[in-house]
Amino acid sequence: MMSPQKHQLLMLLSALLILQFDYCRGLAQQSKTTYNYFAYGSNMCSSTMEKLRNLSPLASTAAVLPGHTLRFNIPGFPLVEPSSASVEPIDEIMDVGKFIEKGELVHGVLYKLTEEDFASVCSTEGVPFAYSLHRCRPIPYSGDGKHAGEESLRKLDDLNMTSKKWGVSAFTLRAARSTWRQGNDIPPSQSYLNVLIRGAKEFALDRSYLEKLQQIEAGRTFPGNGLSEELLRRAEERTR
Questions:
Q1: 88 strand-pairing partners
Q2: Separation of alpha carbons 177 and 164, rounded Å
Q3: pLDDT tens profile 96-147
Q4: pLDDT digits (tens, 9 = 90+) for 59-98
Q5: Model pTM score
Q6: Would you tell me how many other CB atoms lie within 10 Å of the CB of residue 168?
Q7: Dihedral-angle region of residue 4 (phi above 0 means left; psi in -120 to 50 means alpha; beta otherwise)
Q8: Cα distance between residue 58 and residue 117, in whole Å
Q9: Rounded to the nearest 10 degrees, what angle do helices 207-214 and 190-202 cross at?
Q10: Using CA atoms, how far apart are residues 125 and 40, in angstroms rounded to an integer?
Q11: What are the beta bridge partners of residue 133?
């Protein structure tokens, strides 16, 4: 049986811990720092951010990141969720026309996040073990489901990848290990691809990019098509 003194001490410690938690939470809420985060995978879907990850983006818009390619080089769980998406920068500097012609651009969603939410994204995505932060300059556009992103690129006549006069300074995620960056892609589950497609439709990304996502060959999974959609569905049900 606990003595009255020990009971009072535990109550005091509990009260101090609650006060410390409230203080830290208050500091985070008072922070004015915000981060621009470019999402190209399952985080393109607003439900992934809001329902599954419990985040509250301050703003979001369609965006295109030139000079990069979409990869599936983050290993997952074979036959369940074989891989996750990543982006890899292109070393050479080319003009807008060649970027579009070669498909060396990635469409996605540009989020504005609080410092707390950005830290949460980094944590849930496995930075720095699975992913590393990558500075980039995506170009926002008002998605129309046609070719608004391509048009926003063509307005940049003399695109110079070293210039800071175009796009928006942001962070995105790329594969953390050089062996993953240099290796072959691992076909993702159809369920994971469906979440990407859902996000692309939600933000009305360019039709050509949506079709590109729809044409990606899915990897083998058993049983079913993977778990991504089911996890998202359950998160949405919990918050109804």
A1: 69
A2: 27
A3: 777 777 888 999 999 999 999 999 999 999 999 999 999 999 999 999 999 9
A4: 999 999 998 999 999 999 999 999 999 999 987 666 677 7
A5: 0.84
A6: 15
A7: alpha
A8: 10
A9: 170
A10: 13
A11: 173
